[in-house]
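The material for today's practical consists of a large collection of protein records. A record pairs a protein's sequence with a compact description of its fold. Instead of coordinates, the fold is spelled out as a row of discrete tokens. We will come back to this pairing of sequence and fold again and again. Here is such a record, shown just as it appears in the course material.
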Amino acid sequence: MLSTSVDNKTDYSYPSDAFKDMMLSEVNNLRAEGCYCGVKYMVPARKVVWDDVLYKSALSHATEMKRKNFFSHFSANGLDIGDRLDRFGYIWQVAGENLGEGQRSFIEVFRDWIDSPSHCRMIMNPKVEEMGVARYSRYWVQHLGKKLPEGTRRSKRK
């Protein structure tokens, strides 16, 4: 289970299967129903599955934000989500990131993401197939992605 106390000396532990299942269930229930993200209706989307590489990249970013005391979609050295996933060996076709700060539970951060049109659209993105969610101290990071099909490669990003 993820640490539930923000002030705990142990800021993190690997999420239990039950906690991962709960997070996936919340996300997949929303995706199955469809919803409004702000004024835009997002049609139902396929289920996502847990991916440990996305979890590790999310945990790395949450840890960095805590240790260096910042909150951003860019790492301290300017890397974006795609750059960070590249470093973790996640060969992505689609990559997205939701951040939260200060929420005490996954349900609380999930509700905040749903209430934000851009975060909600990322959760509902029909191209997304996998996710990982990590919490370190007061920071939550959700990484979402879809891998490139086997045998394909992405052209260089600018």
In short: The two ends are 39 Å apart (CA to CA). Residues 1-11 have pLDDT under 50 and may be disordered.
